[in-house]
Amino acid sequence: MESASELVAFPLLITPIESNYRACTIPYRFPSDNPRKPTPAEIAWIDLFLNSIPSFKKRAEADTTVPDAPIRAEKFAQRYAEILGDFKKDPESHGGPPDCILLCRIRDQILRELGFRDIFKKVKDEENAKAISLFEDVVRINDAIEDEGKRLENLVRGIFAGNIFDLGSAQLAEVFSRDGMSFLASCQNIVPRPWVIDDLDTFKLKWSKKPWKKAIIFVDNSGADIILGILPFARELLRRGTQVVLAANELPSINDVTYPELIEIIAKLKDDNGELVGIDSKNLLIANSGNDLPVIDLTHVSQELAYMANDADLVILEGMGRGIETNLYAQFKCDSLKIGMVKHPEVAQFLGGRLYDCVFKYNEVSS
Hints:
11% strand, manganese, hydrolase, ARMT-1-like_metal-bd_sf, alpha/beta, At2g17340_3_helix_bundle, 14 helices, 367 residues, two-stranded antiparallel sheet, nickel
């Protein structure tokens, strides 16, 4: 972790944290499992990470900021495949047994050690530029929906459609390199409700009462995800009087948006009056989460974010990595929403849903 200051626990987690929180939704193994033998779940997840190596290697080879990129990319592929192979032989090697945080951390660590800081930079910049040009249209389509509940549902569908832009999923990386993603087409193609976890109706009821003073949103990918999914939703919260804090990664990981990138994106979207298409953005804050992975362990966040979160009454974790794979069952002292699309077959199987199904998990804390 390369955070400038010490990381702390997110202050809205239910305490004692030790007995109430674990940053892993899907158990890869149980205490009764043989510690020296990989479980079927571990093998399935190790294979999922093995299958992602070719697309990561391809991005790394094309990184013009790194000298001898193709040679180093090959080293990355070999070294990571070797470590994943070791886990299959002995789950306790390399700081195991493995979970999704460890598997992500090792992958990013190898890339960074070989000099790759941000292999998805080019595609992030291209996708951000495309999404910025569509932002106003998407916002106006939402604004034109007079019924409050229908507008909320449309904004939520926009979050799911944006969340498809995820290059950590081998299948989606393949689709993306072939023909890109159309945001509005994706909105039309969201699987029909009820979703695999679907608390939207309960959330709608609460939404109609305009209850929240301050929301913390842990954001996910660049491009359509942050710009056409999360920001129109955040803008709607601002319109309704909620202060919004967007928490973004400190360091690059896959195509997740980083704190510096998000500052730049918001600056480009605001007009001369500091408005986001007619809505004052003075209550929109951006925080560095202190994180450097596409998943998040909420016992390790930046002090800046912890301070800003103290008085929040709504926590939103968006995306498969943060909202589903690591924090689906995380319990908070305030209302919380976990929202994301299921993009790995292993996650779909665990939840008993379909691939590309949607998770909208809302927990209300009675005040």
